[in-house]
Amino acid sequence: MFHLETEVDKERRAQLHRLLRDDNTARSPHMSALRGMPDAQEAPLHVWALDAEGRLAGGLAARTWASWLHLELLWVDTAHRGSGLGARLLAEAERVAREDRACLRSRVETWDFQAPGFYRKQGYEVRGQVEDFPPGVTEFTLTKELR
Fold first, then answer.
1. Following CA atoms 120, 56, 79, 114 in sequence, which dihedral angle do they give, to the nearest 10 degrees?
2. Can you tell me the distance from the alpha carbon of 36 to that of 98, in angstroms, rounded to the nearest whole number?
3. pLDDT tens-digit map of 68-81
4. Are β-strands 105-111 and 68-76 bridged in parallel, bridged antiparallel, or unpaired?
5. 113, 136 in Cβ contact below 8 A?
6. Strands (E), the chain
7. Each residue of 27-52: b (16+ CB within 10 Å) or e?
8. pTM here?
9. What is the pLDDT of residues 1-45, one digit of tens each?
């Protein structure tokens, strides 16, 4: 007999993450080998662009793990779109990931109305897509070699 709950619980989520990570490590020799490698530690990577008044003009939030850069958020203020700022933010994140964190590849997920064309221009290739996620929208997964 089990009691099910649907509340958001950050502590339980952290416990769930640890338990799943430990289980994955025990079941996969590849994941087990990664556990002890220094460049396999997950670490946040942020790049910020501030305007002359110190306001946020754009930013990128990502994380690095196991020789991969995983882009999570990239935003440029509408006043600065088309100026190359997004490409500069992305290039800086890729540089830090490659030079300082020994990353070999990068990945990103984006929706069809967001930026798949932008990422393709930066050298990313579509590796997969999910139609109707959310309904009426296509999600793309793109990757790039950083070497």
1. 30
2. 20
3. 999 999 999 999 99
4. parallel
5. no
6. 43-50, 56-65, 68-76, 105-111, 125-130, 139-145
7. eeeebeebeeeeebeeeebebebeee
8. 0.86
9. 998 999 999 999 999 999 998 999 899 988 877 777 765 678 999
